Fold:
Amino acid sequence: MSVEGPQYFVESSERFASSGMRVLHLLRGHRWGTIERESLRSMQWQKKAGVVVVVYLDRKSPLDQALGQRGPEAIKIYPRQSLHSSWVWRIGDFFWLRKIIKQYNIQLVHAYSLDDLILVGLALRTTPEIPLIFSINSEIVKSHRKIWLRPFVVRIDRFVVYNPELLENIWTEMKIHPRKGLVLWPSPLEEVETSSSGQNDSSWEIVIGSYIPPLLRSMDGPQTMFAAITVLQENLKQPLRLKLFVDRTLIKSYFVEHLHTFSRPWAKSFEIDICDFDGLYPPLSSIHLWWTLSDEVIEDFSLLALKARVPIIAPRMSSYIELKQKQPWIGELYKKQDVREMWSN
Structure:
């Protein structure tokens, strides 16, 4: 069910007769990354627990599609101004957000971007009893310690991160003590399919897995990976196979729709399988190495691969560097667009 603008005030009160807790999720939904997948997984858990889920997001965004196709039943509210625009242009939305909180008797607000901090802070100004949670999955590069931002920062009751290395960054840029933080490693509702060494030893084939996001805007990342694997194949006796995982249900960009065409020239050097999958996470069975192209702090697929004891190769970023220092077995890191370092590592 979805509503927009003032129309949501005509909803029947019987629709919300459930005695379950009411949680408002506020996020843009324009990307399809760790935050969006984890928000959807959180809603699935909440619906199982009897929670009434209300989502404030943009119409026709990937998250909107996912909720309609495989997500739990949720009340979707579309704002008058796109959540993708600057908060300066959406400052009046705090009035509608405040009415949403009152109309649906919201008992907890969960936001997923610090760009919405002022919007949510203004909406909750008269309801200090409602907890405010933020999920953060990127390093904060702009200080939130300015005097005029402090009242909004103090309003945060808890923040959720998917990488413990972010706790220090949040303390530095926001002065929020780590005791307010909760580290949740991404995990599916079902057990992850782990790789089986016996299953693949007979073929002597090395299988590399990678995820292609549905809204891919350029082939630069995949093409660089193709080039690195081509050189790697020339230096190995074992055959290589690359499995490119693509979401089956989400609307895809031009590059993903024509992925077969873009990958065909490279298929002369090594095997390329384009695998459509259902659900939030691709299967990790038969994968020997997970290759992430994501520039997120830490991609959820990478964490799930490590949970399944599958090593990864990832961009050289501070979060992955610190993770590798603590657990050297996780795999190797590379400089983005550096083909030589990719294949050698």
The radius of gyration is 22 Å. Confidence is low (pLDDT under 50) at residues 2-18, 194-202. The CA atoms of residues 171 and 212 lie 33 Å apart.
